[in-house]
Design a protein that fits this description.
Strand content: under 5%
Helix content: 55-70%
Order of helices and strands: HHHHHHHHHHH
Structural class: mainly alpha
Number of helices: 11
Oligomer: single chain
Distance between the termini: 58 Å
Radius of gyration: 19 Å
Length: about 260
């Protein structure tokens, strides 16, 4: 097998975070909030829309968070700490099948960390000091994906660097994880449910979070603490008891009776 070596640019963590934020969140916002809003009307989870000032607030905090993410990523990879990580740059160092397996392992670790970190910062004192900024988006938009207090941004950011000391990972696997994580954050904060009709009756519905799932968390301020999966919420009995009913309500709007379009 031919050997390929991969090296990070020192500025890649910062640049990729900024590009990813504005491309992913911007395209999602443009599609469902501007260009095709009437077509997505039945997908809307909460009936009202956030205001322009909410979008601007979300963007302001998110841009600051991207800087923190970039600094932390740079610090872990390029500081002396980086020499203790399990990053490997030659594809021949591990079997090819390890690439997707390492991605899944990192996602599982990240989801577990996120659940307990997220649940912890919902304690009254920490919520007021750290998490309240994110929950100003009661009806979130894609721009809210990175809208954090700087301390929460640090808590959000450190898990990926920590995992590279636990799981041998190629840079391509790390990039895949960061893109999956951000796509899921944009989807969770979209404000619209876009899963296909078949999803509801598949095993994936029993495992994965949805936009409705996380939107309920923003609307009700508690429960549904997981990032990707429903496992921890189910085990700890913190899943919103109305989640399935709410998801089915949106499904009925989307695939059953239709609402009249709004002229804008």
């Amino acid at each position: 097998m031919e050997n390929y070596s991969f090296h990070f640019s020192p500025y890649l963590p910062l640049i990729s975070n900024l590009i990813r934020y504005f491309v992913f969140a911007g395209v999602a916002f443009l599609i469902v909030y501007k260009l095709f809003y009437n077509q997505f009307l039945n997908n809307k989870i909460q009936s009202h829309l956030a205001k322009k000032k909410d979008f601007l607030r979300e963007i302001k905090h998110s841009v600051f968070s991207t800087l923190i993410f970039g600094i932390i990523g740079f610090g872990f990879i390029y500081s002396p700490l980086g020499s203790y990580s399990q990053i490997y740059t030659n594809t021949s160092d591990f079997p090819l099948w390890w690439l997707p397996v390492s991605v899944l392992l990192i996602l599982a670790i990240q989801d577990t960390y996120f659940y307990w970190m997220h649940k912890t910062i919902h304690s009254p004192k920490l919520f007021k000091r750290i998490h309240r900024i994110h929950h100003q988006s009661i009806n979130p938009s894609p721009w809210a994906a990175y809208s954090f207090h700087f301390l929460e941004a640090i808590l959000e950011a450190i898990i990926i660097p920590i995992t590279i000391f636990i799981v041998p990972a190629h840079p391509l696997a790390i990039l895949a994880v960061t893109f999956i994580a951000f796509w899921f954050s944009v989807y969770g904060h979209l404000g619209f449910e876009i899963t296909p009709k078949w999803f509801r009756n598949s095993w994936l519905f029993e495992v994965m979070n949805t936009s409705v799932y996380h939107n309920l968390h923003h609307e009700k301020f508690r429960g549904n603490y997981g990032l990707y999966f429903r496992f921890w919420d189910r085990i700890m009995k913190t899943e919103n008891p109305n989640y399935v009913m709410e998801f089915d309500r949106i499904q009925e709007k989307r695939f059953g009776k239709k609402l009249a379009p709004i002229l804008t």
